[in-house]
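*** Backbone structure tokens ***
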Amino acid sequence: MAKIEVSSEEKANIKKYKMGKILLHTNMDERGSGLLGAISRASMEVKFTVDDLVNGKKIEVKDIMEIIELEEIIINVSKTFKQVLEAAASFGGETVIEL
């Protein structure tokens, strides 16, 4: 099960800015083209949205290497999405940069 923890403020901003359906990752573009690519995409499609990770999503993998790879991907997209949430929280606000 893949799931990230978000604060109540972050959850409110996800809802406020309608970010739940944002696709954070898909492996569909990594599966090649043609018939073999189509078979590969059908057999091991992995994709998740903000809602999937906030609410939890069961992801089935075939081996430990895929677990390690997905864990790294989830950590990276979560860090990036946290930056997006922080930026969204300041919408309409003022940012002062002192030089």
Remarks:
- The chain has one domain: 8-89.
- Helices lie at 8-16, 34-43, 50-55, 64-89.
- The two ends are 45 Å apart (CA to CA).
- The chain has a mean pLDDT of 83.
